[in-house]
Amino acid sequence: MTAGDRPELSDLIVSYDPETGARRPVRKADVLERLRGDRWAAWIASRLEADAEGVLVPEAVDDLLVRAHCELQRLNEEFQQGVRVRAFLAPLLAALRRRETPRPLRVVDLGCGIGYVVRWLALRGDLGDDVELIGCDMNAALLAVAERAARAEGLRCRFVAGNAFRLAEPAHVYVSTGVLHHFRGPELERVFAEQAPALAFAHWDIQASWMAPLGAAIFHLARMRVPLAQHDGTRSAARAHPDDRLLAAVRAALPGWRSGFFDVNRSFFPITKVMRPVVGARADLWPGVVEALGPEARRLADVA
Amino acid sequence: MTEALLLGAVLSGLAVLDAGFAGFRAAAGREPTLQKWRSGYYPRAIRRGLLLGLANVLVVVALGAGLLLASPGWAPVAARAQAALLVVVGTYAAVVLLAFVPWLTCHHEVRSLTSVIVFGPLTLARGPVVGAGLALALWTARTRWEACLVLGVACALVLIAEPLLGVLGRRRGW
Q1: For residue range A105-124, what is the model confidence (pLDDT) as tens digits?
Q2: Cα–Cα dist A229/A223, whole Å
Q3: Does the global pTM surpass 0.90?
Q4: Do A149 and B33 touch (CB under 8 A)?
Q5: Which of B29, B109, B121 comes nearest A70 by C-beta?
Q6: Do A71 and B116 touch (CB under 8 A)?
Protein backbone atom coordinates (compact mmCIF):
# COMPACT_ATOMS: atom_id res chain seq x y z
CA MET A 1 0.00 0.00 0.00
CA THR A 2 1.48 3.33 -1.03
CA ALA A 3 1.29 6.44 1.09
CA GLY A 4 -1.38 7.77 -1.21
CA ASP A 5 -3.52 4.68 -0.71
CA ARG A 6 -3.54 4.82 3.07
CA PRO A 7 -6.90 6.12 4.22
CA GLU A 8 -7.57 9.00 6.53
CA LEU A 9 -9.27 8.18 9.77
CA SER A 10 -11.97 10.76 9.27
CA ASP A 11 -13.04 8.90 6.12
CA LEU A 12 -13.30 5.60 7.95
CA ILE A 13 -15.04 6.48 11.19
CA VAL A 14 -18.14 7.91 9.53
CA SER A 15 -20.23 6.55 6.70
CA TYR A 16 -23.15 8.05 4.85
CA ASP A 17 -25.53 6.93 2.16
CA PRO A 18 -24.29 9.03 -0.78
CA GLU A 19 -27.80 9.64 -2.10
CA THR A 20 -29.83 10.24 1.05
CA GLY A 21 -27.03 11.41 3.33
CA ALA A 22 -28.32 9.07 6.02
CA ARG A 23 -25.67 8.00 8.48
CA ARG A 24 -24.66 4.36 8.51
CA PRO A 25 -23.21 2.47 11.47
CA VAL A 26 -19.48 1.87 11.46
CA ARG A 27 -17.97 -1.09 13.23
CA LYS A 28 -14.76 -0.45 15.10
CA ALA A 29 -13.37 -3.79 13.99
CA ASP A 30 -13.86 -2.81 10.34
CA VAL A 31 -11.99 0.42 10.89
CA LEU A 32 -9.11 -1.40 12.55
CA GLU A 33 -9.02 -3.91 9.71
CA ARG A 34 -8.69 -1.12 7.16
CA LEU A 35 -5.87 0.39 9.18
CA ARG A 36 -3.67 -2.66 9.14
CA GLY A 37 -0.10 -1.54 8.65
CA ASP A 38 -0.77 1.98 9.95
CA ARG A 39 0.09 1.61 13.61
CA TRP A 40 -0.40 5.28 14.43
CA ALA A 41 -3.91 5.34 12.98
CA ALA A 42 -4.75 1.98 14.52
CA TRP A 43 -3.74 3.28 17.95
CA ILE A 44 -5.99 6.30 17.53
CA ALA A 45 -8.87 4.16 16.30
CA SER A 46 -8.46 1.67 19.14
CA ARG A 47 -9.28 4.45 21.60
CA LEU A 48 -12.58 5.33 19.93
CA GLU A 49 -15.70 4.62 21.95
CA ALA A 50 -17.84 1.76 20.68
CA ASP A 51 -21.11 0.32 21.96
CA ALA A 52 -21.77 -3.23 23.12
CA GLU A 53 -22.10 -4.37 19.52
CA GLY A 54 -18.79 -2.87 18.50
CA VAL A 55 -20.34 0.04 16.58
CA LEU A 56 -18.62 3.38 16.97
CA VAL A 57 -20.71 5.73 19.08
CA PRO A 58 -21.81 8.53 16.72
CA GLU A 59 -21.79 11.24 19.39
CA ALA A 60 -18.21 10.41 20.37
CA VAL A 61 -17.14 10.37 16.73
CA ASP A 62 -18.85 13.70 16.10
CA ASP A 63 -17.24 15.28 19.14
CA LEU A 64 -13.85 14.18 17.86
CA LEU A 65 -14.53 15.49 14.37
CA VAL A 66 -15.76 18.83 15.67
CA ARG A 67 -12.58 19.26 17.71
CA ALA A 68 -10.46 18.28 14.71
CA HIS A 69 -12.28 20.72 12.44
CA CYS A 70 -11.91 23.57 14.93
CA GLU A 71 -8.18 22.93 14.83
CA LEU A 72 -8.32 22.74 11.05
CA GLN A 73 -9.98 26.13 10.99
CA ARG A 74 -6.95 27.52 12.74
CA LEU A 75 -4.78 26.32 9.86
CA ASN A 76 -7.15 27.90 7.34
CA GLU A 77 -6.95 31.15 9.27
CA GLU A 78 -3.15 31.07 9.24
CA PHE A 79 -3.03 30.22 5.55
CA GLN A 80 -5.46 33.05 4.79
CA GLN A 81 -7.74 30.63 2.97
CA GLY A 82 -10.72 33.01 2.97
CA VAL A 83 -8.64 35.65 1.20
CA ARG A 84 -7.50 33.11 -1.37
CA VAL A 85 -11.00 31.87 -2.12
CA ARG A 86 -12.29 35.39 -2.46
CA ALA A 87 -9.48 36.31 -4.86
CA PHE A 88 -10.86 33.93 -7.47
CA LEU A 89 -14.51 33.83 -6.48
CA ALA A 90 -15.19 37.57 -6.68
CA PRO A 91 -14.09 37.90 -10.34
CA LEU A 92 -15.89 34.65 -11.16
CA LEU A 93 -19.13 36.03 -9.76
CA ALA A 94 -18.60 39.27 -11.70
CA ALA A 95 -18.35 37.18 -14.86
CA LEU A 96 -21.58 35.38 -13.97
CA ARG A 97 -23.36 38.70 -13.52
CA ARG A 98 -22.22 39.90 -16.94
CA ARG A 99 -23.62 36.69 -18.35
CA GLU A 100 -26.93 37.65 -16.75
CA THR A 101 -27.10 34.50 -14.69
CA PRO A 102 -30.37 34.36 -12.72
CA ARG A 103 -30.06 35.60 -9.17
CA PRO A 104 -29.26 34.78 -6.50
CA LEU A 105 -25.89 33.42 -7.49
CA ARG A 106 -25.56 30.29 -5.40
CA VAL A 107 -22.08 29.38 -4.20
CA VAL A 108 -21.94 25.98 -2.55
CA ASP A 109 -18.96 24.89 -0.46
CA LEU A 110 -18.61 21.16 -0.88
CA GLY A 111 -17.70 19.29 2.29
CA CYS A 112 -17.64 22.56 4.21
CA GLY A 113 -17.07 21.03 7.65
CA ILE A 114 -17.71 23.75 10.23
CA GLY A 115 -18.11 26.23 7.39
CA TYR A 116 -15.05 28.40 7.85
CA VAL A 117 -14.79 29.57 4.24
CA VAL A 118 -18.51 30.26 3.88
CA ARG A 119 -18.59 32.18 7.15
CA TRP A 120 -15.44 34.11 6.28
CA LEU A 121 -16.91 35.17 2.95
CA ALA A 122 -20.16 36.12 4.68
CA LEU A 123 -18.28 38.13 7.29
CA ARG A 124 -16.30 39.93 4.60
CA GLY A 125 -19.65 40.68 3.03
CA ASP A 126 -18.41 42.13 -0.25
CA LEU A 127 -19.33 39.43 -2.74
CA GLY A 128 -22.67 41.11 -3.29
CA ASP A 129 -26.20 40.95 -1.93
CA ASP A 130 -27.19 38.79 -4.88
CA VAL A 131 -24.90 35.98 -3.74
CA GLU A 132 -26.15 33.14 -1.61
CA LEU A 133 -23.45 31.34 0.37
CA ILE A 134 -24.27 27.74 1.22
CA GLY A 135 -22.11 25.26 3.07
CA CYS A 136 -22.84 21.61 2.53
CA ASP A 137 -21.60 18.57 4.42
CA MET A 138 -22.82 15.11 5.25
CA ASN A 139 -22.06 15.54 8.95
CA ALA A 140 -24.91 17.25 10.79
CA ALA A 141 -22.81 17.78 13.93
CA LEU A 142 -20.23 19.81 12.02
CA LEU A 143 -22.98 21.82 10.37
CA ALA A 144 -24.59 22.49 13.75
CA VAL A 145 -21.31 24.09 14.85
CA ALA A 146 -21.18 26.06 11.60
CA GLU A 147 -24.74 27.27 12.07
CA ARG A 148 -24.18 28.27 15.70
CA ALA A 149 -21.01 30.17 14.83
CA ALA A 150 -22.71 31.92 11.93
CA ARG A 151 -25.70 32.96 14.06
CA ALA A 152 -23.43 34.13 16.88
CA GLU A 153 -21.83 36.61 14.49
CA GLY A 154 -24.92 37.44 12.47
CA LEU A 155 -23.57 36.08 9.21
CA ARG A 156 -25.64 35.82 6.05
CA CYS A 157 -25.08 32.24 5.02
CA ARG A 158 -26.68 28.87 5.53
CA PHE A 159 -25.75 25.27 5.87
CA VAL A 160 -27.36 22.16 4.44
CA ALA A 161 -26.78 18.57 5.49
CA GLY A 162 -26.66 16.05 2.72
CA ASN A 163 -25.38 15.56 -0.79
CA ALA A 164 -24.21 18.88 -2.25
CA PHE A 165 -25.18 17.68 -5.72
CA ARG A 166 -28.79 16.99 -4.72
CA LEU A 167 -29.77 20.39 -3.38
CA ALA A 168 -33.27 21.63 -4.03
CA GLU A 169 -31.77 24.71 -5.63
CA PRO A 170 -28.63 23.71 -7.52
CA ALA A 171 -25.37 25.57 -7.27
CA HIS A 172 -24.03 27.99 -9.84
CA VAL A 173 -20.52 27.66 -8.41
CA TYR A 174 -18.95 24.87 -6.39
CA VAL A 175 -15.97 25.52 -4.16
CA SER A 176 -14.16 23.37 -1.66
CA THR A 177 -11.09 23.40 0.55
CA GLY A 178 -9.05 20.31 1.29
CA VAL A 179 -11.70 17.90 -0.01
CA LEU A 180 -10.59 16.60 -3.40
CA HIS A 181 -7.91 14.27 -2.07
CA HIS A 182 -10.66 12.34 -0.26
CA PHE A 183 -11.99 11.22 -3.65
CA ARG A 184 -9.94 8.32 -4.93
CA GLY A 185 -9.89 6.48 -8.22
CA PRO A 186 -13.01 6.93 -10.40
CA GLU A 187 -14.70 8.83 -7.58
CA LEU A 188 -12.62 11.85 -8.57
CA GLU A 189 -14.09 11.88 -12.08
CA ARG A 190 -17.53 11.31 -10.61
CA VAL A 191 -17.32 14.29 -8.25
CA PHE A 192 -16.44 16.55 -11.17
CA ALA A 193 -19.13 15.03 -13.39
CA GLU A 194 -21.70 15.81 -10.71
CA GLN A 195 -20.86 19.49 -11.13
CA ALA A 196 -21.96 19.56 -14.77
CA PRO A 197 -25.24 21.40 -14.04
CA ALA A 198 -23.28 24.22 -12.42
CA LEU A 199 -21.44 26.99 -14.24
CA ALA A 200 -18.02 26.98 -12.58
CA PHE A 201 -15.95 25.55 -9.79
CA ALA A 202 -12.83 26.28 -7.77
CA HIS A 203 -11.47 23.57 -5.52
CA TRP A 204 -8.51 24.19 -3.27
CA ASP A 205 -6.42 21.25 -2.20
CA ILE A 206 -2.88 20.53 -1.10
CA GLN A 207 -0.42 20.91 -3.94
CA ALA A 208 1.36 17.61 -4.38
CA SER A 209 5.10 18.14 -4.14
CA TRP A 210 8.15 16.54 -2.60
CA MET A 211 7.91 18.77 0.43
CA ALA A 212 4.18 18.57 1.03
CA PRO A 213 4.32 15.52 3.34
CA LEU A 214 7.21 16.94 5.36
CA GLY A 215 5.63 20.38 5.63
CA ALA A 216 2.27 18.89 6.53
CA ALA A 217 3.83 16.72 9.23
CA ILE A 218 5.68 19.65 10.80
CA PHE A 219 2.72 21.96 10.70
CA HIS A 220 0.11 19.49 11.87
CA LEU A 221 2.27 18.28 14.73
CA ALA A 222 2.93 21.88 15.70
CA ARG A 223 -0.64 23.08 15.50
CA MET A 224 -2.96 20.14 16.16
CA ARG A 225 -3.71 18.64 19.55
CA VAL A 226 -6.19 16.01 18.47
CA PRO A 227 -4.27 12.89 17.36
CA LEU A 228 -6.79 12.23 14.57
CA ALA A 229 -6.18 15.71 13.19
CA GLN A 230 -2.41 15.23 13.36
CA HIS A 231 -2.68 11.90 11.61
CA ASP A 232 -5.10 12.92 8.90
CA GLY A 233 -3.36 16.21 8.21
CA THR A 234 -0.08 14.43 7.71
CA ARG A 235 -1.71 11.70 5.64
CA SER A 236 -3.62 14.14 3.44
CA ALA A 237 -0.45 15.64 2.02
CA ALA A 238 0.66 12.20 0.84
CA ARG A 239 -2.76 11.69 -0.75
CA ALA A 240 -2.81 15.00 -2.59
CA HIS A 241 -3.61 14.49 -6.27
CA PRO A 242 -0.85 15.55 -8.65
CA ASP A 243 -1.74 18.34 -11.04
CA ASP A 244 -1.99 16.12 -14.09
CA ARG A 245 -4.34 13.70 -12.29
CA LEU A 246 -6.67 16.52 -11.33
CA LEU A 247 -6.76 18.02 -14.79
CA ALA A 248 -7.27 14.62 -16.38
CA ALA A 249 -10.22 13.99 -14.08
CA VAL A 250 -11.78 17.38 -14.81
CA ARG A 251 -11.39 17.07 -18.55
CA ALA A 252 -12.71 13.53 -18.67
CA ALA A 253 -15.73 14.46 -16.58
CA LEU A 254 -16.47 17.88 -18.05
CA PRO A 255 -15.36 17.84 -21.68
CA GLY A 256 -17.20 21.04 -22.60
CA TRP A 257 -15.49 23.08 -19.90
CA ARG A 258 -12.28 25.10 -19.72
CA SER A 259 -10.12 24.30 -16.73
CA GLY A 260 -6.71 24.88 -15.23
CA PHE A 261 -5.03 26.04 -12.06
CA PHE A 262 -4.91 29.39 -10.36
CA ASP A 263 -2.06 30.73 -8.29
CA VAL A 264 0.32 27.76 -8.28
CA ASN A 265 3.98 27.60 -7.40
CA ARG A 266 5.83 25.20 -9.68
CA SER A 267 9.30 26.00 -8.34
CA PHE A 268 11.46 23.44 -6.55
CA PHE A 269 10.44 25.07 -3.28
CA PRO A 270 6.66 25.47 -3.50
CA ILE A 271 6.30 26.49 0.10
CA THR A 272 4.51 29.73 -0.72
CA LYS A 273 1.46 27.88 -2.06
CA VAL A 274 0.44 25.20 0.37
CA MET A 275 -2.90 24.82 -1.38
CA ARG A 276 -3.83 25.73 -4.93
CA PRO A 277 -7.19 25.58 -6.69
CA VAL A 278 -8.14 23.65 -9.75
CA VAL A 279 -10.63 25.94 -11.45
CA GLY A 280 -13.03 25.52 -14.30
CA ALA A 281 -16.01 27.01 -16.02
CA ARG A 282 -18.22 26.32 -18.99
CA ALA A 283 -16.44 27.18 -22.20
CA ASP A 284 -18.73 30.09 -23.05
CA LEU A 285 -18.21 31.58 -19.59
CA TRP A 286 -14.42 31.24 -19.49
CA PRO A 287 -13.49 34.36 -21.51
CA GLY A 288 -15.63 36.40 -19.14
CA VAL A 289 -13.82 34.89 -16.15
CA VAL A 290 -10.43 35.74 -17.64
CA GLU A 291 -11.58 39.26 -18.39
CA ALA A 292 -12.95 39.69 -14.87
CA LEU A 293 -9.68 38.49 -13.36
CA GLY A 294 -7.89 41.30 -15.16
CA PRO A 295 -4.15 41.37 -14.33
CA GLU A 296 -4.68 38.41 -11.99
CA ALA A 297 -5.37 36.24 -15.03
CA ARG A 298 -1.60 35.82 -15.32
CA ARG A 299 -1.88 33.53 -12.29
CA LEU A 300 -3.85 31.01 -14.34
CA ALA A 301 -1.87 27.97 -15.48
CA ASP A 302 -2.37 24.90 -17.67
CA VAL A 303 -5.66 26.18 -19.04
CA ALA A 304 -7.24 24.08 -21.76
CA MET B 1 24.32 38.97 42.98
CA THR B 2 23.33 41.99 40.90
CA GLU B 3 24.15 40.15 37.70
CA ALA B 4 22.07 37.17 38.77
CA LEU B 5 19.15 39.44 39.61
CA LEU B 6 19.40 41.27 36.32
CA LEU B 7 19.60 38.09 34.25
CA GLY B 8 16.83 36.61 36.34
CA ALA B 9 14.65 39.61 35.57
CA VAL B 10 15.26 39.27 31.82
CA LEU B 11 14.53 35.55 31.88
CA SER B 12 11.43 36.18 33.97
CA GLY B 13 10.23 38.71 31.42
CA LEU B 14 10.73 36.21 28.64
CA ALA B 15 8.93 33.55 30.65
CA VAL B 16 5.92 35.79 31.22
CA LEU B 17 5.85 36.74 27.52
CA ASP B 18 6.14 33.08 26.58
CA ALA B 19 3.26 32.26 28.89
CA GLY B 20 1.16 34.90 27.15
CA PHE B 21 1.86 33.19 23.85
CA ALA B 22 1.09 29.85 25.50
CA GLY B 23 -2.29 31.25 26.49
CA PHE B 24 -2.95 32.14 22.89
CA ARG B 25 -1.88 28.73 21.65
CA ALA B 26 -3.94 26.92 24.26
CA ALA B 27 -7.03 28.80 23.10
CA ALA B 28 -6.35 28.60 19.37
CA GLY B 29 -8.15 25.93 17.41
CA ARG B 30 -10.97 25.58 19.93
CA GLU B 31 -13.38 28.38 19.02
CA PRO B 32 -15.11 28.34 15.64
CA THR B 33 -16.28 31.96 15.52
CA LEU B 34 -14.25 34.26 13.32
CA GLN B 35 -13.83 37.50 15.26
CA LYS B 36 -11.83 36.06 18.11
CA TRP B 37 -9.81 39.22 18.67
CA ARG B 38 -12.74 41.60 18.53
CA SER B 39 -14.90 39.41 20.77
CA GLY B 40 -12.15 39.31 23.39
CA TYR B 41 -11.62 35.57 23.12
CA TYR B 42 -7.91 35.81 22.28
CA PRO B 43 -7.18 38.80 24.56
CA ARG B 44 -8.67 36.90 27.51
CA ALA B 45 -6.61 33.84 26.63
CA ILE B 46 -3.42 35.87 26.45
CA ARG B 47 -4.26 37.53 29.76
CA ARG B 48 -4.69 34.13 31.40
CA GLY B 49 -1.30 33.11 30.06
CA LEU B 50 0.36 36.27 31.33
CA LEU B 51 -1.17 35.78 34.78
CA LEU B 52 0.04 32.18 34.86
CA GLY B 53 3.46 33.36 33.76
CA LEU B 54 3.55 35.89 36.61
CA ALA B 55 2.50 33.21 39.06
CA ASN B 56 5.26 30.94 37.79
CA VAL B 57 7.81 33.71 38.18
CA LEU B 58 6.68 34.25 41.76
CA VAL B 59 7.13 30.55 42.48
CA VAL B 60 10.66 30.58 41.08
CA VAL B 61 11.55 33.83 42.85
CA ALA B 62 10.27 32.43 46.14
CA LEU B 63 12.24 29.24 45.64
CA GLY B 64 15.41 31.10 44.70
CA ALA B 65 15.09 33.57 47.54
CA GLY B 66 14.50 30.81 50.02
CA LEU B 67 17.55 28.88 48.84
CA LEU B 68 19.71 32.01 48.90
CA LEU B 69 18.70 32.72 52.48
CA ALA B 70 19.44 29.15 53.47
CA SER B 71 22.69 28.86 51.55
CA PRO B 72 24.15 32.05 50.12
CA GLY B 73 27.09 32.02 47.71
CA TRP B 74 25.66 30.24 44.69
CA ALA B 75 24.52 33.48 43.05
CA PRO B 76 27.61 33.79 40.78
CA VAL B 77 27.08 30.23 39.53
CA ALA B 78 23.41 31.00 38.96
CA ALA B 79 24.35 34.10 36.96
CA ARG B 80 26.61 32.10 34.65
CA ALA B 81 23.92 29.47 34.17
CA GLN B 82 21.28 32.10 33.53
CA ALA B 83 23.50 33.68 30.91
CA ALA B 84 23.90 30.33 29.19
CA LEU B 85 20.14 29.77 29.23
CA LEU B 86 19.51 33.27 27.94
CA VAL B 87 21.77 32.76 24.95
CA VAL B 88 19.64 29.83 23.81
CA VAL B 89 16.12 30.96 24.67
CA GLY B 90 16.91 34.59 23.96
CA THR B 91 17.93 33.75 20.41
CA TYR B 92 14.74 31.78 19.93
CA ALA B 93 12.66 34.62 21.34
CA ALA B 94 14.36 37.15 19.09
CA VAL B 95 13.58 35.13 15.97
CA VAL B 96 9.95 34.72 17.00
CA LEU B 97 9.50 38.39 17.80
CA LEU B 98 11.22 39.49 14.60
CA ALA B 99 8.89 37.26 12.60
CA PHE B 100 5.95 39.29 13.88
CA VAL B 101 7.16 42.29 11.91
CA PRO B 102 6.30 40.85 8.48
CA TRP B 103 3.34 39.01 9.91
CA LEU B 104 1.76 42.21 11.21
CA THR B 105 2.65 44.52 8.38
CA CYS B 106 2.72 42.66 5.11
CA HIS B 107 0.54 41.17 2.38
CA HIS B 108 -1.46 38.07 3.20
CA GLU B 109 0.96 35.93 1.19
CA VAL B 110 3.83 37.04 3.43
CA ARG B 111 1.72 36.44 6.51
CA SER B 112 0.89 32.97 5.35
CA LEU B 113 4.52 32.26 4.48
CA THR B 114 5.66 33.52 7.89
CA SER B 115 3.26 31.12 9.55
CA VAL B 116 4.43 28.22 7.40
CA ILE B 117 8.18 28.64 7.68
CA VAL B 118 8.60 30.39 11.02
CA PHE B 119 5.72 30.19 13.48
CA GLY B 120 4.76 26.60 12.75
CA PRO B 121 8.23 25.04 12.94
CA LEU B 122 9.28 27.27 15.83
CA THR B 123 6.28 26.14 17.83
CA LEU B 124 7.48 22.58 17.36
CA ALA B 125 11.02 23.60 18.28
CA ARG B 126 10.03 25.41 21.47
CA GLY B 127 10.25 22.38 23.74
CA PRO B 128 13.62 21.21 22.43
CA VAL B 129 14.95 24.78 22.58
CA VAL B 130 13.98 25.14 26.23
CA GLY B 131 15.41 21.68 26.86
CA ALA B 132 18.67 22.58 25.16
CA GLY B 133 18.90 25.83 27.08
CA LEU B 134 18.24 24.03 30.34
CA ALA B 135 20.84 21.37 29.55
CA LEU B 136 23.44 24.04 28.89
CA ALA B 137 22.46 25.91 32.03
CA LEU B 138 22.57 22.77 34.18
CA TRP B 139 26.00 21.93 32.85
CA THR B 140 27.16 25.44 33.63
CA ALA B 141 25.67 25.28 37.12
CA ARG B 142 26.62 21.69 37.86
CA THR B 143 28.68 22.58 40.93
CA ARG B 144 25.68 24.07 42.80
CA TRP B 145 22.48 22.04 43.15
CA GLU B 146 20.57 25.16 44.26
CA ALA B 147 21.07 26.84 40.89
CA CYS B 148 20.20 23.62 39.09
CA LEU B 149 17.00 23.24 41.07
CA VAL B 150 15.81 26.79 40.46
CA LEU B 151 16.57 26.65 36.74
CA GLY B 152 14.99 23.22 36.43
CA VAL B 153 11.79 24.33 38.13
CA ALA B 154 11.67 27.50 36.05
CA CYS B 155 12.01 25.65 32.74
CA ALA B 156 9.51 23.00 33.80
CA LEU B 157 6.95 25.68 34.60
CA VAL B 158 7.55 27.23 31.18
CA LEU B 159 6.96 23.90 29.47
CA ILE B 160 3.79 22.97 31.34
CA ALA B 161 2.18 26.39 30.92
CA GLU B 162 0.43 25.60 27.65
CA PRO B 163 -0.92 22.15 28.59
CA LEU B 164 -2.05 23.53 31.95
CA LEU B 165 -3.84 26.44 30.29
CA GLY B 166 -5.45 23.98 27.89
CA VAL B 167 -6.76 21.79 30.70
CA LEU B 168 -7.99 24.78 32.69
CA GLY B 169 -9.64 26.18 29.59
CA ARG B 170 -11.50 22.95 28.85
CA ARG B 171 -12.69 22.57 32.42
CA ARG B 172 -13.94 26.11 32.67
CA GLY B 173 -15.31 26.29 29.15
CA TRP B 174 -13.26 29.35 28.19
Answers
A1: 999 999 999 999 999 999 99
A2: 10
A3: yes
A4: yes
A5: B29
A6: no
